[in-house]
Amino acid sequence: MFYRALFFVTLISNADAYNILVYSPTISKSHMIQNARVGDALAKDGHNVTVMELEMDEKAGSLNQVKHAKLWPVVHDWPERPPVPHMDAGNPLDWQLLKMVTLLKNFLEPYGTSCSALLRSQDIMNQIRDSKFDVIMFEQFDYCPFFISHVLDIKVKVWMSSCPVLEHQVMLSGIPSAYSYSPIDGYSDKMNFWQRFLNMVASFAFGYNFNSFWGNFHQKLVEQYGPSFPNPLDLARTADLLLINTDELIDFPRALPPNVIHIGGIGMQNVNTTLPVEYEKLMQNGRKGVIYFSFGSIVSTEKIGQKYMKKFLDAFKKFDDYFFIVKISNEDEFSEEYAKTIENVKTAHWVPQPGVLAHPRLRLFITHGGYNGIMEASQFAVPLLSIGMFGDQPRNSKLVERNGWGLSFDKTLLLHGTKEFEERLREMLENPKYKKNALRTAKLLRTKPQTGEQRLLSYIRFLEENDGHLPELRSILSELSTVEYYNLDVWLAIVVVATALILILGSLIIMLAKYLTKLVKKDKME
Q1: How many CA atoms lie within 13 A of 274 on its CB side?
Q2: Most buried in the list 262, 418, 431, 440, measured by CB within 10 Å?
């Protein structure tokens, strides 16, 4: 009887479940992993989930990260994404981000090309149509899913961000601008005048240029579908939810509308931390413990250059009480050979990162500041020395420093030698406050009322139970003009009225003064 009841409950659950498409361009391994985690979490919750890996940089299906959802690798003859920016010795100043903003069109061009090809592919579009998806979920860079949802009438659109919310999403999602305290580059939330100026210019330029690219894409859509096709930016404003891969405990606090949800940390609670025998042996090295160095999958140590990598390795050599595990890119032959001359350094092309971070002998994680790595380190209470390279990484590095469980380091200081880097490294190893604050952060994450995964599942169910739309949560801010948002017309009216009152009052005072002067003169004459 019990099994029969369970069978009917399962049928009801599956009947109520959403049919979800997670649209995942393979721009980097970390993005693919995050999208796979989202898809798997929803699949385990009873939804029918397909993760569509659209091949761009990485080979579709190559990571084998999708465990519970269906994986749909889509391969097409699309151009590769431009090379990722790396350490630039010729541009060490704060304007580096603005230079990256000017290159934004080159970054987005492959997305536009791939989108045009996809929309013209009858085979792919028919497969999506025939699957009858209820929901399409997708990341921040590619607006193509908005167009797909409109053409194929997929009702529910869930926008995501694989990193802290970006400025183009702020502009279209009704999020209040926060230029004075929400940094886009390597600043903290306490900025001086010059930093606030740069932050405002860079934030606006990034968001405007990003949305201009997709706004200009409208002409191609009109050519294919006719003049009635909506503007891409208007479609972007219709997203039902915006899910951010951040945790509010590990981000700069800012005001967010109620349809913008933190879901950071998905899939990290139950990660396998068992180390292979080889790495368990490595973790026993170092009289005072082990330090782990990794710049993730998107920052190539070979592209960083021999000069910089030699400086890192030479600095590690001086801390001979510690053993360094240094993850390098496959093509970095220099670092691999040079490290063989240093007793307390071991290089590797692949490292079981969760197991290393969870190990009790790990003392420090030297990272590029990618958000997934920061989230993993926070779960295991590992202090961070963060060297942001590009994108959100310098910002994330300052975030860790703000909350007291790490320090940031400006990569351009390596141009002048390793002294400053060694000082930061020594400070982190000798001052116990960083470990203490890391333990507090881990406890906060462990004891918070809802995890990111619980929020993801509950909000998707909430959507499902309420016809797939939550206009009650959507802020009208994105529909306001600049004049309305900043109340410029109201302030102008106040200034005009105040000026008029001052002029009238001044005129009355002058008239009264003249009148009194006449009275005084008249009295004297009499």
Answers
A1: 2
A2: 262
